[in-house]
Design a protein that fits this description.
The chain is mostly helical and 186 residues long. The protein has helices at 5-8, 16-21, 30-43, 48-61, 67-71, 75-83, 91-111, 114-121, 126-136, 142-151, 164-171, 175-178.
Length: 186
């Protein structure tokens, strides 16, 4: 039987803090949402541990994931990023993060911001979320959408109900807990 994230992440030197203080907690800050989406994009095909280890250098390389700064990245910044051994150097992923920064900017005009755009679409089942994300963002397939939305409290499953973090998050009433229980089979 495969172990869950809650079985091995607590007290782990790389995963512990993320598991205990970030994963599954409701999130609405635009910069943090954009960072989380970018990290999920960088994770595609890799382990989450690699992403967490590279997170500090990714944060520096992408100007603390400031949406407006990243949206202005051009060819020179892309070349700089592709030469940076501290980050995940995948041209498609880098281009997607830059393009998605521009799309987050557009959401300010259409919805008031990234968090408001997400709120405007809830509650949805994962398949419907994937359709919405694919219409709006680049490099956002099913697994990226699932992990992103679980990580910010919009889909269930981030923590086992027996995990102490689950109880902490439940007290905050994340969006998935407010949805129709039939939507998530609970």
């Amino acid at each position: 039987m495969a172990s869950s994230y809650c079985d091995f992440a607590p007290d782990h030197p790389v995963h512990g803090s993320y598991h205990d203080t970030e994963y599954g907690y409701p999130l609405a800050d635009e910069t943090r949402l954009f960072e989380r989406l970018a990290l999920e994009i960088f994770q595609a095909g890799l382990s989450w541990e690699i992403v967490l280890k590279k997170r500090p250098t990714l944060k520096v390389a992408f100007d603390s994931f400031d949406v407006d700064r990243v949206a202005r990245f051009g060819a020179r910044q892309v070349q700089r990023l592709l030469k940076d051994p501290g980050i995940i150097r995948n041209r498609l992923k880098i281009a997607a993060v830059i393009d998605n920064a521009k799309r987050v900017q557009d959401l300010r005009a259409s919805h008031g911001g990234f968090a408001d755009w997400i709120k405007a679409h809830r509650p949805l089942a994962l398949a419907d979320w994937v359709k919405v994300f694919r219409r709006t963002f680049t490099f956002t397939g099913g697994e990226i959408c699932n992990e992103f939305l679980m990580s910010i409290g919009y889909l269930p499953g981030a923590h086992d109900p027996a995990c102490p973090v689950f109880r902490t998050i439940a007290r905050q009433r994340p969006p998935w807990m407010k949805a129709d229980p039939r939507l998530y089979g609970r």
